Each structure stands twice: as structure tokens, then as C-alpha cells.
């Protein structure tokens, strides 16, 4: 029996997927080289496309999004690897109700225990699926964890002092969205060829620490590359999208909800910080700002990239629009009710 030395050796298959981790490493390194070169020579390469100030803004946004998200991505990767290596599969079967429809709200409520952002929830939900948790419950957890954990709710309370209804509205809306999307998966997602089910890539006879190490390296290289791509996209959108039009739509409730929802997708702000940005948009109603805080942690450009890399691009192009529509609808309803 050969020793476990890398994730790809453990996962070797006839179809060539054993090269997945190596390919992710090469792609990640190439992306970093490309972006560093762009930062160094971008002013000459993009003269006429961006102003010098635009280049600086792009670099600041790219570095800010990456640095802001990376610690939580690392947290998610470590937790994902720990779940894979140290938690027996039978634990998840006992922790959640056997009926998938009942497992969804339990998984949604359990999102409160992970103090991280959306970058951490993607690898953790993938690990849950690979350990036997129904995809509907794992998806519900993926959506609720970055939005209802104590860190996010505390930051929301600090950003909106004297307005506890905003905190309650955010928690209720995010929890409702996660359950609706989980139940929607039960109705439409079973057996879909457009969903890449995460697999347990590690040999059952490997040592637990070997499994932990190989899982951590694989997931970080795999998810980190997509995070870099998503951060670059968010920075580009921040440079090219004009800001002056915001003042013209704030007076229309429905339009302002849609616009702030789209802005949340484009800005890709970490869920621990988005409440302060929402609070600064004082020209908009509380309902519109609620939509900004609900949409951001569950669908933005870097999260779409992470989901595409983890569950496949066909999943991302279906899941992101559905999540966006459900989030806006729930924000309008809860905003009308509580705000």
C-alpha cells in the first residue's frame, strides 16, 4: 500500500481527476502572477481605459476584498478539513432529522454557530455534502451561516444604533431565504446533472492527520484561486460602474431595492462589514438597505466564483439568480412587516 502524500494521489481515478489539485495550484499561481503584473504595469496597459485614479482604486479594491475574505476562507477550509478528517459520518445522520424537509430548517438555524463570512461557508457546506448531509440542508446552511452568526448580527446592531428592528429583520429575512432555497432544492434539484456533488476524496485507511492535511491543501488551492478571480471582478466592477445614478433611484422603493441588491452583488463586501456600508447609504429606505444586507452574504461576484469552482458553473448560473430573486422578495415582505 503506497503512502498518502498528496490529495491527488489519494483521489487517483482512471478519468484523470487525480491531477485536479495540481491543476488548481498551477491556475492559482498563474492568476497571482497575472494580477501582480497587471498591478505593476496596468497604467501603461490600460491607458485610455482607466484613469490613473481608476487604477489605484482597482488595486485598492482588489487587495481589500482579498485580504478581507482570506482569513474567513482559511477558517472555512480548516473547519472543512476538520469535518472531513475527525468527525465520523454517522454524526451528521444523528444531528439532523432524517426527513430532508425537516433537516432544512435545522441546518438553517445551525448557521448561527459559524462566526465567518460567505467565503467560509462554501467549503464547509461542500464538506457536509461529502459526509452524507443532504444537499438541501447543506445549501440552507451555506446561505444562513454568513448572515445570522453572532459576529454579523453584532456588527449590524453597532451600525444601526437604536434600531433593533433592523437586526431582527436581517436575521428573520436571511433565515427565511435559506429555508426557502433549501426546500426549493428538494423540489427541483434532485438528480440534476448540472450539480457537481462534492466527493470524499480521501482514502478510508489514511491517517486522520494525513487526511486533514491533504484536504486543507486541496480546498485552499481550489477555493483560493476562485476567490482571487472573484475579487478581481469585484474591483473591476467598482471602477467601471458610475456612482451618481444612486441618488436618482432612492425615491422609488421597488427600484431602490433592486438597485441596492445589484450593488451588493457587485461590491462583494464581507458580511461582517456590509452593515456599515448599508448604514452609510442614508438616502435609501431601511427596506432597501435590508435588501443590500440580505443579498450580499448569499450572492455576490466572488461567492458566485467560489460556488462555480466548488459545485460547478452550471450550478452557479442557476443558483445565483434564484437566490437573488428570493432574497429581494423576502426583503420587501419583511421590510413591509418590520420596518
Written overview of the protein:
This protein has one domain. It has helices at residues 7-10, 20-45, 52-86, 89-95, 100-110, 118-130, 135-148, 150-159, 164-188, 208-240, 246-249, 253-267, 274-280, 286-295, 301-311, 313-338. The radius of gyration is 20 Å and the shape is globular. With 339 residues, the chain is an all-alpha fold. 74% of the residues lie in helices and 0% in strands.
How many β-strand runs?
Answer: 0
Order of helices and strands: HHHHHHHHHHHHHHHH
Instruction: Determine the number of helices (DSSP H or I, runs of at least 4 residues).
Output: 16
Report the radius of gyration as a whole number of Å. 20 Å
For the largest beta-sheet, the strand count, sense and barrel status come to: none
Domain tally: 1
> N-to-C terminal Cα separation, in Å?
63 Å
Tell the overall outline: globular
Structural class assignment = mainly alpha
- Poorly predicted spans: 1-21
Give the averaged pLDDT, no decimals.
75
Helix content: over 70%
Strand content: under 5%
Family: Belongs to the UPF0718 family.
Main location: membrane
Keywords: Cell membrane, Membrane, Transmembrane, Transmembrane helix
Region (Disordered): 1-22
Keywords:
mainly alpha, disordered N terminus
Quick take:
By secondary structure, the chain is mainly alpha-helical. It has 16 helices and no strands. The longest helix has 35 residues, at 52-86.
